[in-house]
Specification:
The structure holds 2 protein chains of 2 kinds. Chain A is built from 13 helices and 10 strands. The longest helix of chain A has 16 residues. Chain B is mostly beta strands. Chain B has a 3-stranded antiparallel β-sheet with strand order 1-2-3, with no helix packed on it. Classes of the chains: A alpha/beta, B mainly beta. At the A-B interface, β1 and α4 of A face β1 of B. The complex binds iron/sulfur cluster and zinc ion (2 copies). One zinc ion binds next to loops of chain B.
Protein backbone atom coordinates (compact mmCIF):
# COMPACT_ATOMS: atom_id res chain seq x y z
CA UNK A 1 0.00 0.00 0.00
CA UNK A 2 1.13 3.50 -0.77
CA UNK A 3 0.41 6.22 1.72
CA UNK A 4 -2.08 8.95 0.84
CA UNK A 5 -0.03 11.54 -1.01
CA UNK A 6 -0.13 15.27 -0.42
CA UNK A 7 -1.31 17.63 -3.08
CA UNK A 8 1.88 17.91 -5.08
CA UNK A 9 3.65 15.04 -3.35
CA UNK A 10 1.72 12.83 -5.71
CA UNK A 11 3.73 14.09 -8.66
CA UNK A 12 7.01 13.24 -6.96
CA UNK A 13 5.63 9.84 -6.01
CA UNK A 14 4.40 9.25 -9.54
CA UNK A 15 7.78 10.14 -10.97
CA UNK A 16 9.40 7.42 -8.95
CA UNK A 17 6.62 4.84 -9.03
CA UNK A 18 5.25 5.22 -12.56
CA UNK A 19 8.07 6.74 -14.55
CA UNK A 20 10.95 4.83 -13.00
CA UNK A 21 9.29 1.56 -12.05
CA UNK A 22 6.37 1.41 -14.50
CA UNK A 23 3.78 0.79 -11.79
CA UNK A 24 0.44 2.52 -12.24
CA UNK A 25 -1.05 4.80 -9.60
CA UNK A 26 -3.51 3.53 -7.01
CA UNK A 27 -7.06 4.87 -6.84
CA UNK A 28 -6.12 7.21 -4.01
CA UNK A 29 -3.19 8.55 -5.99
CA UNK A 30 -5.26 8.99 -9.14
CA UNK A 31 -7.74 10.97 -7.08
CA UNK A 32 -4.94 13.18 -5.79
CA UNK A 33 -3.88 13.80 -9.40
CA UNK A 34 -7.42 14.66 -10.44
CA UNK A 35 -7.55 17.16 -7.59
CA UNK A 36 -4.30 18.90 -8.47
CA UNK A 37 -4.83 22.64 -8.73
CA UNK A 38 -4.57 24.26 -12.15
CA UNK A 39 -1.10 25.65 -11.52
CA UNK A 40 0.27 22.10 -11.40
CA UNK A 41 -1.38 21.07 -14.65
CA UNK A 42 1.67 21.80 -16.84
CA UNK A 43 3.89 19.66 -14.57
CA UNK A 44 1.32 16.89 -14.55
CA UNK A 45 1.05 16.86 -18.33
CA UNK A 46 4.81 16.92 -18.72
CA UNK A 47 5.18 13.93 -16.40
CA UNK A 48 2.40 12.02 -18.19
CA UNK A 49 4.20 12.69 -21.46
CA UNK A 50 7.49 11.41 -20.06
CA UNK A 51 5.72 8.28 -18.85
CA UNK A 52 4.16 7.73 -22.23
CA UNK A 53 7.51 8.21 -24.02
CA UNK A 54 9.31 5.87 -21.62
CA UNK A 55 6.77 3.04 -21.54
CA UNK A 56 5.06 3.34 -24.93
CA UNK A 57 7.47 5.26 -27.14
CA UNK A 58 6.87 8.12 -29.56
CA UNK A 59 4.64 6.31 -32.05
CA UNK A 60 0.98 7.13 -32.39
CA UNK A 61 -1.56 4.57 -33.51
CA UNK A 62 -4.06 6.05 -35.93
CA UNK A 63 -7.49 4.49 -36.36
CA UNK A 64 -10.65 5.13 -38.35
CA UNK A 65 -14.10 3.95 -37.31
CA UNK A 66 -17.35 3.44 -39.15
CA UNK A 67 -20.86 2.54 -38.19
CA UNK A 68 -22.12 -0.57 -39.96
CA UNK A 69 -25.50 -0.44 -38.25
CA UNK A 70 -26.59 2.94 -36.93
CA UNK A 71 -29.43 3.69 -34.50
CA UNK A 72 -32.37 1.66 -33.28
CA UNK A 73 -30.46 0.09 -30.39
CA UNK A 74 -32.69 -1.51 -27.72
CA UNK A 75 -30.38 -0.44 -24.85
CA UNK A 76 -30.78 2.80 -22.91
CA UNK A 77 -27.26 4.19 -22.43
CA UNK A 78 -28.26 7.74 -21.50
CA UNK A 79 -25.48 9.41 -23.50
CA UNK A 80 -26.26 7.67 -26.77
CA UNK A 81 -28.14 9.13 -29.72
CA UNK A 82 -28.41 5.64 -31.19
CA UNK A 83 -30.66 4.25 -28.49
CA UNK A 84 -34.11 3.57 -29.93
CA UNK A 85 -35.60 4.58 -26.58
CA UNK A 86 -34.92 8.29 -26.83
CA UNK A 87 -36.40 10.86 -29.22
CA UNK A 88 -33.05 11.53 -30.90
CA UNK A 89 -33.07 12.67 -34.53
CA UNK A 90 -30.75 9.78 -35.48
CA UNK A 91 -32.56 7.29 -37.74
CA UNK A 92 -31.61 3.66 -38.22
CA UNK A 93 -29.35 2.86 -41.14
CA UNK A 94 -27.27 -0.03 -42.44
CA UNK A 95 -24.10 0.59 -44.38
CA UNK A 96 -23.83 -1.66 -47.43
CA UNK A 97 -20.71 -3.69 -48.23
CA UNK A 98 -19.42 -1.32 -50.96
CA UNK A 99 -19.82 1.52 -48.46
CA UNK A 100 -17.84 -0.42 -45.88
CA UNK A 101 -15.07 -1.18 -48.37
CA UNK A 102 -14.91 2.50 -49.30
CA UNK A 103 -14.74 3.56 -45.65
CA UNK A 104 -11.87 1.12 -45.05
CA UNK A 105 -10.06 2.45 -48.13
CA UNK A 106 -10.47 6.06 -46.98
CA UNK A 107 -9.16 5.06 -43.57
CA UNK A 108 -6.04 3.37 -44.95
CA UNK A 109 -5.39 6.44 -47.10
CA UNK A 110 -4.95 8.52 -43.95
CA UNK A 111 -2.08 6.23 -42.94
CA UNK A 112 -4.19 4.55 -40.26
CA UNK A 113 -3.39 0.94 -39.35
CA UNK A 114 -6.67 0.20 -37.57
CA UNK A 115 -10.20 0.14 -38.87
CA UNK A 116 -13.01 -0.46 -36.41
CA UNK A 117 -16.41 -1.71 -37.54
CA UNK A 118 -19.10 -0.66 -35.08
CA UNK A 119 -22.76 -1.57 -34.71
CA UNK A 120 -25.41 -0.10 -32.41
CA UNK A 121 -26.75 -3.29 -30.90
CA UNK A 122 -27.02 -5.02 -27.53
CA UNK A 123 -25.07 -7.85 -29.12
CA UNK A 124 -24.72 -9.24 -32.62
CA UNK A 125 -27.20 -11.61 -34.24
CA UNK A 126 -26.36 -13.96 -37.10
CA UNK A 127 -27.35 -11.36 -39.70
CA UNK A 128 -24.94 -8.82 -38.28
CA UNK A 129 -22.13 -11.33 -37.96
CA UNK A 130 -22.57 -12.47 -41.55
CA UNK A 131 -22.48 -8.81 -42.67
CA UNK A 132 -19.25 -8.36 -40.74
CA UNK A 133 -17.78 -11.50 -42.29
CA UNK A 134 -18.80 -10.44 -45.79
CA UNK A 135 -17.48 -6.96 -45.14
CA UNK A 136 -14.09 -8.18 -43.94
CA UNK A 137 -13.80 -10.51 -46.95
CA UNK A 138 -14.67 -7.62 -49.28
CA UNK A 139 -12.13 -5.30 -47.61
CA UNK A 140 -9.43 -7.96 -48.08
CA UNK A 141 -10.54 -8.62 -51.67
CA UNK A 142 -10.05 -4.89 -52.25
CA UNK A 143 -6.37 -5.43 -51.46
CA UNK A 144 -6.62 -3.65 -48.12
CA UNK A 145 -4.56 -5.22 -45.32
CA UNK A 146 -5.48 -2.73 -42.59
CA UNK A 147 -6.04 -4.39 -39.21
CA UNK A 148 -9.69 -4.84 -38.37
CA UNK A 149 -11.30 -4.33 -34.99
CA UNK A 150 -14.97 -4.68 -34.13
CA UNK A 151 -17.36 -3.18 -31.63
CA UNK A 152 -20.63 -5.10 -31.68
CA UNK A 153 -21.81 -5.09 -28.10
CA UNK A 154 -22.02 -8.04 -25.75
CA UNK A 155 -20.87 -11.40 -27.09
CA UNK A 156 -21.38 -15.08 -26.38
CA UNK A 157 -18.42 -17.46 -26.29
CA UNK A 158 -19.35 -18.78 -29.75
CA UNK A 159 -19.45 -15.26 -31.15
CA UNK A 160 -16.05 -14.47 -29.69
CA UNK A 161 -14.69 -17.55 -31.48
CA UNK A 162 -16.40 -16.55 -34.73
CA UNK A 163 -14.79 -13.13 -34.65
CA UNK A 164 -11.38 -14.65 -33.98
CA UNK A 165 -11.91 -16.95 -36.97
CA UNK A 166 -12.75 -13.92 -39.15
CA UNK A 167 -9.38 -12.42 -38.28
CA UNK A 168 -10.69 -9.66 -36.00
CA UNK A 169 -7.68 -8.95 -33.83
CA UNK A 170 -9.09 -6.43 -31.36
CA UNK A 171 -12.51 -6.02 -29.80
CA UNK A 172 -13.89 -2.79 -28.40
CA UNK A 173 -16.40 -2.84 -25.62
CA UNK A 174 -16.42 0.14 -23.30
CA UNK A 175 -17.18 -0.08 -19.61
CA UNK A 176 -18.23 3.56 -20.12
CA UNK A 177 -17.84 4.72 -16.53
CA UNK A 178 -17.02 3.63 -12.98
CA UNK A 179 -18.85 0.57 -11.76
CA UNK A 180 -20.53 2.60 -9.01
CA UNK A 181 -21.88 5.13 -11.53
CA UNK A 182 -22.94 2.70 -14.25
CA UNK A 183 -26.51 2.06 -12.95
CA UNK A 184 -27.19 5.80 -13.30
CA UNK A 185 -26.13 5.68 -16.96
CA UNK A 186 -27.57 2.38 -18.19
CA UNK A 187 -30.47 0.36 -16.83
CA UNK A 188 -30.93 -2.29 -19.54
CA UNK A 189 -27.75 -4.19 -18.78
CA UNK A 190 -25.11 -4.25 -16.09
CA UNK A 191 -21.47 -3.29 -15.82
CA UNK A 192 -20.76 -6.90 -14.91
CA UNK A 193 -22.29 -8.13 -18.18
CA UNK A 194 -19.93 -5.83 -20.03
CA UNK A 195 -17.01 -7.08 -17.95
CA UNK A 196 -17.93 -10.69 -18.82
CA UNK A 197 -17.66 -10.00 -22.57
CA UNK A 198 -14.28 -8.36 -22.03
CA UNK A 199 -13.08 -11.35 -20.05
CA UNK A 200 -14.06 -13.75 -22.84
CA UNK A 201 -12.44 -11.54 -25.47
CA UNK A 202 -9.17 -11.50 -23.55
CA UNK A 203 -9.32 -15.26 -22.90
CA UNK A 204 -9.72 -15.87 -26.64
CA UNK A 205 -6.50 -13.97 -27.29
CA UNK A 206 -8.04 -10.91 -28.91
CA UNK A 207 -6.70 -7.52 -27.90
CA UNK A 208 -9.06 -5.79 -25.49
CA UNK A 209 -10.07 -2.20 -26.24
CA UNK A 210 -12.06 -0.75 -23.38
CA UNK A 211 -12.65 2.81 -22.33
CA UNK A 212 -15.47 5.16 -21.63
CA UNK A 213 -16.91 8.62 -21.56
CA UNK A 214 -15.91 11.40 -19.20
CA UNK A 215 -18.54 13.96 -18.23
CA UNK A 216 -21.63 11.85 -17.54
CA UNK A 217 -22.25 13.24 -14.07
CA UNK A 218 -19.63 11.08 -12.39
CA UNK A 219 -17.78 12.51 -9.41
CA UNK A 220 -14.06 13.02 -9.42
CA UNK A 221 -13.84 10.04 -7.03
CA UNK A 222 -15.68 7.95 -9.61
CA UNK A 223 -13.24 9.05 -12.31
CA UNK A 224 -10.43 7.73 -10.13
CA UNK A 225 -12.41 4.56 -9.50
CA UNK A 226 -12.92 4.11 -13.24
CA UNK A 227 -9.21 4.55 -13.99
CA UNK A 228 -8.17 1.74 -11.66
CA UNK A 229 -11.02 -0.52 -12.77
CA UNK A 230 -9.78 -0.15 -16.32
CA UNK A 231 -6.20 -0.76 -15.21
CA UNK A 232 -7.29 -3.98 -13.51
CA UNK A 233 -8.61 -5.22 -16.86
CA UNK A 234 -5.16 -4.70 -18.44
CA UNK A 235 -6.64 -3.51 -21.71
CA UNK A 236 -4.46 -3.18 -24.75
CA UNK A 237 -6.17 0.10 -25.53
CA UNK A 238 -8.31 2.63 -23.67
CA UNK A 239 -10.31 5.07 -25.78
CA UNK A 240 -11.14 8.26 -23.87
CA UNK A 241 -14.29 10.05 -24.95
CA UNK A 242 -15.73 13.28 -23.59
CA UNK A 243 -19.49 13.60 -23.53
CA UNK A 244 -21.05 15.28 -26.54
CA UNK A 245 -24.54 16.08 -25.22
CA UNK A 246 -26.85 14.59 -27.85
CA UNK A 247 -30.24 16.12 -28.57
CA UNK A 248 -33.14 13.98 -27.40
CA UNK A 249 -31.05 11.95 -24.92
CA UNK A 250 -31.33 12.28 -21.13
CA UNK A 251 -27.92 14.01 -21.18
CA UNK A 252 -28.76 16.60 -23.81
CA UNK A 253 -28.43 19.50 -21.38
CA UNK A 254 -25.25 18.31 -19.69
CA UNK A 255 -22.31 20.69 -19.79
CA UNK A 256 -19.32 19.70 -21.84
CA UNK A 257 -16.24 18.79 -19.83
CA UNK A 258 -13.92 21.68 -19.10
CA UNK A 259 -10.70 21.53 -21.09
CA UNK A 260 -8.47 21.51 -18.00
CA UNK A 261 -10.47 18.68 -16.43
CA UNK A 262 -10.24 16.74 -19.66
CA UNK A 263 -6.46 17.14 -19.72
CA UNK A 264 -6.15 16.24 -16.03
CA UNK A 265 -8.15 13.10 -16.72
CA UNK A 266 -6.00 12.12 -19.69
CA UNK A 267 -2.83 12.53 -17.64
CA UNK A 268 -4.32 10.67 -14.66
CA UNK A 269 -5.30 7.76 -16.90
CA UNK A 270 -1.77 7.66 -18.29
CA UNK A 271 -0.33 7.55 -14.78
CA UNK A 272 -2.76 4.77 -13.84
CA UNK A 273 -1.90 2.77 -16.98
CA UNK A 274 1.66 3.55 -18.06
CA UNK A 275 1.86 0.91 -20.81
CA UNK A 276 -1.66 1.03 -22.21
CA UNK A 277 -2.47 2.62 -25.52
CA UNK A 278 -4.51 5.71 -24.61
CA UNK A 279 -6.63 6.90 -27.48
CA UNK A 280 -8.20 10.30 -28.05
CA UNK A 281 -11.75 9.59 -29.20
CA UNK A 282 -15.08 11.41 -29.45
CA UNK A 283 -15.69 14.80 -27.92
CA UNK A 284 -12.10 16.02 -27.96
CA UNK A 285 -12.90 18.57 -30.67
CA UNK A 286 -15.64 20.12 -28.57
CA UNK A 287 -13.97 19.89 -25.17
CA UNK A 288 -10.40 20.71 -26.09
CA UNK A 289 -10.33 22.42 -29.46
CA UNK A 290 -7.18 22.47 -31.58
CA UNK A 291 -4.78 23.67 -28.91
CA UNK A 292 -6.11 21.20 -26.35
CA UNK A 293 -5.70 18.32 -28.78
CA UNK A 294 -2.02 19.16 -28.97
CA UNK A 295 -1.75 19.43 -25.19
CA UNK A 296 -3.39 16.01 -24.86
CA UNK A 297 -0.88 14.52 -27.30
CA UNK A 298 1.82 16.02 -25.08
CA UNK A 299 0.05 14.86 -21.91
CA UNK A 300 -0.16 11.09 -22.18
CA UNK A 301 -2.19 10.29 -25.29
CA UNK A 302 -0.54 7.98 -27.83
CA UNK A 303 -3.34 7.03 -30.22
CA UNK A 304 -6.13 8.86 -32.01
CA UNK A 305 -9.24 8.28 -34.02
CA UNK A 306 -9.03 10.36 -37.17
CA UNK A 307 -11.87 11.59 -39.34
CA UNK A 308 -15.49 11.27 -38.35
CA UNK A 309 -17.06 9.27 -35.57
CA UNK A 310 -20.14 7.09 -35.72
CA UNK A 311 -22.79 9.77 -35.79
CA UNK A 312 -20.71 12.90 -35.24
CA UNK A 313 -18.13 14.59 -37.41
CA UNK A 314 -14.55 15.02 -36.26
CA UNK A 315 -12.01 17.52 -37.39
CA UNK A 316 -10.44 16.78 -40.78
CA UNK A 317 -7.98 13.86 -40.63
CA UNK A 318 -5.41 16.01 -42.42
CA UNK A 319 -5.36 18.41 -39.48
CA UNK A 320 -4.57 15.62 -37.01
CA UNK A 321 -1.87 14.18 -39.23
CA UNK A 322 -0.29 17.63 -39.61
CA UNK A 323 -0.38 18.01 -35.84
CA UNK A 324 1.46 14.70 -35.37
CA UNK A 325 4.04 15.78 -37.93
CA UNK A 326 4.55 19.09 -36.13
CA UNK A 327 4.90 17.28 -32.81
CA UNK A 328 7.39 14.87 -34.41
CA UNK A 329 5.32 11.90 -33.39
CA UNK A 330 5.58 9.16 -36.01
CA UNK A 331 2.42 7.38 -37.07
CA UNK A 332 2.69 3.69 -36.25
CA UNK A 333 3.18 1.77 -39.48
CA UNK A 334 1.29 -1.38 -40.41
CA UNK A 335 4.42 -3.49 -41.01
CA UNK A 336 5.56 -2.88 -37.45
CA UNK A 337 2.30 -4.13 -36.00
CA UNK A 338 2.26 -7.45 -37.84
CA UNK B 1 -33.37 31.62 -51.67
CA UNK B 2 -32.72 30.23 -48.20
CA UNK B 3 -33.82 26.71 -47.25
CA UNK B 4 -37.24 26.66 -45.56
CA UNK B 5 -36.26 24.25 -42.77
CA UNK B 6 -33.40 23.93 -40.29
CA UNK B 7 -31.33 20.77 -40.86
CA UNK B 8 -30.57 20.43 -37.14
CA UNK B 9 -33.99 20.79 -35.52
CA UNK B 10 -36.42 20.50 -38.43
CA UNK B 11 -38.34 23.67 -37.52
CA UNK B 12 -39.04 26.37 -40.09
CA UNK B 13 -35.89 28.36 -40.68
CA UNK B 14 -37.69 31.62 -39.88
CA UNK B 15 -39.26 30.20 -36.71
CA UNK B 16 -37.24 31.85 -33.98
CA UNK B 17 -33.52 32.10 -33.44
CA UNK B 18 -32.14 28.57 -33.86
CA UNK B 19 -29.27 29.56 -31.60
CA UNK B 20 -28.96 25.98 -30.25
CA UNK B 21 -28.61 24.83 -33.87
CA UNK B 22 -25.56 27.00 -34.50
CA UNK B 23 -23.16 25.96 -31.78
CA UNK B 24 -19.76 24.32 -31.80
CA UNK B 25 -21.58 21.05 -31.19
CA UNK B 26 -23.83 21.30 -34.24
CA UNK B 27 -20.78 22.20 -36.31
CA UNK B 28 -19.78 18.57 -35.65
CA UNK B 29 -23.19 17.19 -36.53
CA UNK B 30 -24.34 16.12 -40.01
CA UNK B 31 -27.74 17.41 -41.16
CA UNK B 32 -30.57 15.39 -39.63
CA UNK B 33 -33.63 17.00 -41.25
CA UNK B 34 -34.28 17.72 -44.90
CA UNK B 35 -33.95 21.43 -45.57
CA UNK B 36 -36.68 21.24 -48.21
CA UNK B 37 -39.40 19.38 -46.27
CA UNK B 38 -38.13 18.84 -42.66
CA UNK B 39 -38.42 15.04 -42.93
CA UNK B 40 -35.98 13.19 -40.67
CA UNK B 41 -33.27 11.84 -42.96
CA UNK B 42 -31.37 8.55 -42.91
CA UNK B 43 -27.79 9.65 -42.35
CA UNK B 44 -24.62 7.66 -42.80
CA UNK B 45 -21.43 9.13 -41.40
CA UNK B 46 -18.26 7.74 -42.99
CA UNK B 47 -14.66 8.39 -41.94
CA UNK B 48 -14.30 11.29 -44.40
CA UNK B 49 -17.83 12.50 -44.99
CA UNK B 50 -21.54 11.85 -44.65
CA UNK B 51 -24.56 11.27 -46.79
CA UNK B 52 -28.13 11.97 -45.87
CA UNK B 53 -31.22 10.71 -47.64
CA UNK B 54 -34.70 12.23 -47.59
CA UNK B 55 -37.44 9.82 -48.66
CA UNK B 56 -38.92 12.60 -50.79
CA UNK B 57 -35.99 14.71 -51.93
CA UNK B 58 -33.25 12.14 -52.34
CA UNK B 59 -29.64 12.29 -51.26
CA UNK B 60 -27.47 15.10 -49.95
CA UNK B 61 -23.81 14.49 -49.46
CA UNK B 62 -20.83 16.26 -47.92
CA UNK B 63 -17.84 17.38 -49.87
CA UNK B 64 -15.46 14.68 -48.77
CA UNK B 65 -12.48 16.23 -47.12
CA UNK B 66 -9.41 14.42 -45.92
S1 LIG C 1 -25.47 -0.37 -26.39
FE1 LIG C 1 -24.19 1.02 -27.63
S2 LIG C 1 -25.47 1.70 -29.33
FE2 LIG C 1 -26.81 0.80 -27.79
S3 LIG C 1 -27.54 2.53 -26.58
FE3 LIG C 1 -25.72 1.67 -25.54
S4 LIG C 1 -23.98 2.84 -26.37
FE4 LIG C 1 -25.74 3.22 -27.72
ZN1 LIG D 1 -32.84 24.74 -35.84
ZN1 LIG E 1 -37.10 16.27 -48.13
Amino acid sequence: MTAAPGRTGVLAQAREQVLDRGEGLSQEQVLAVLRLPDEHLPDLLALAHEVRMRWCGPEVEVEGIVSLKTGGCPEDCHFCSQSGRFPSPVRSAWLDIPGLVKAARQTVETGATEFCIVAAVRGPDSRLLSQVREGIDAIRADGNDIRIACSLGMLTREQVDELVAMGVHRYNHNLETARSHFPAVVTTHSWEERWETLRMVAAAGMEVCCGGIIGMGETVEQRAEFAVQLAELRPHEVPVNFLIPQPGTPYEDFDIVEGRDALRTVAAFRLAMPRTMLRFAGGRELTLGDLGAEQGMLGGINAIIVGNYLTNLGRPARQDLDMLRDLRMPVKALSETL
Amino acid sequence: MTAPFCVHCGRAADDGEHAPCRTSRTALEPPRFCAACARRMVVQVTPMGWDARCSRHGAYTSEETG
